Structures are given as structure tokens and as C-alpha cells.
Amino acid sequence: MNRLGEARKDIETAISVWGELITERLGDRIRYAMLKGSVLKSWNSIVDYVPVISDLDIHIGTINDQPLFPQDRDGFLYSLETTRLYEERFNELRPDHIHIPRPQIVKMESHCEMWLPESTDDVLSIFGEIPFRDEESEADCRKRDLVALMELDALLKRMPGRIVDRIGLEYFRIIRELCYV
Fold it and tell me: Is the pTM of this model over 0.85?
């Protein structure tokens, strides 16, 4: 079995299901939803996309920066129901899957322009029209990266105390934190 080929089929199914769910369940409160990250790239090696560890990055911009779900019990239940529908529909379409791709849904904040893509090469629209930011110069990108690296100092100093009590797949949380920084 070609595991990367099967993982790609799982990803394509997940994208299709989330495209439907976002339209059906969130379409009245969002402006756009876009897919980005490793799922859009070609996978030239087994580390480019790792089932269970890698995720389906979906960034969503809401109308007037409202929350994705009402911040009450009904919103909580609606969110749970959305997740249940995702798994149910995914399993119907791909009963012989090797994994159910884990979504990472990020609500975009209008004041965080840096999170926006520079071009359509970086993203796939799954709802609405995606806003883009101006292209960043290489010099500005290097300055921003240097500041971000300098901010890692405190995190790295705390790292030994954060990993001493982890085992097996629990390291995943630490890796994700490092990747997300």
C-alpha cells in the first residue's frame, strides 16, 4: 500500500467534507475560509505530511470579527455537533482510511494582517473571497524572523522542565508548540 497516496486521499476527503460543513454550519457568520500548510504542498518525503501529527490548517475570517460559535452552551453543542458530522461524513466517504485528518481551525483576527497570505500560491479557498496582504520584502522578513527567534529564548529555557514528564505521543504537544511559535 502506498501510505502517502492513501493519506492524500484522506486529505482530499477531509477538505471536501470541511468545505461542505463550513458552508452549511458557519456560512452565515464567516467572510472566508482558506486551507493552507503542508496539505497543499507536494509530499516528496515521509516527513512532509505525517498522518496523525500533521493537520489540516483551516483559517477562517468572520464577519465583524464575531466568534465562530456563540460563546454559550448552545455554541459549545453546535461546535461538538460540527465535529461529529465531520467524522461521520468522512467515515462514510472513506471507510478504509488510514487516518482521519485532524483539523486545526484558526479564527483570523482582522488586526493580524501578518497571518494573511501574500498570494494564491499559498492557499486554497474553501469559502468566500480571501483577503491578501502586501508582499513582504526579504529584509523585512529577516527582521521579523530575528525578533521571533530572540523571543524563543524564554521558551527554550523552560523546555527541559516541560519534557521530563512526557512519554511517547505526548512529545507531540511540545513539537506542535515549537512549530506554532
Answer: no
- Only one residue has cell 496523525, namely 52
Q: What domain range includes position 171?
A: 136-181
- Same domain for 91 and 18, yes or no, is yes
Half-sphere exposure for 92 (CA within 13 Å, toward CB): 8
* Residue of 70, 95, 81, 90 whose CA lies nearest to 15: 90
DSSP character at residue 150: H
| CA–CA gap between residue 25 and residue 18 (Å, rounded) | 10
**Same domain membership, residue 152 and residue 126:** no
**Tens of each residue's pLDDT in the chain, 181 residues:** 788 889 999 999 999 999 999 999 999 999 999 999 888 888 887 778 888 888 899 999 999 999 999 999 999 999 999 999 999 999 999 999 999 999 999 999 876 777 787 778 889 999 999 888 888 888 887 888 788 778 888 878 888 888 888 887 777 777 767 665 4
Exposure of 140 in the CB half-sphere (CA atoms within 13 A): 5
Pairing of the two strands 123-128 and 102-108: unpaired
Of 118, 133, 148, which residue sits at a domain end? 133
Interatomic CA distance for residues 82 and 17, integer angstroms: 11
Specify the length of the chain in residues. 181
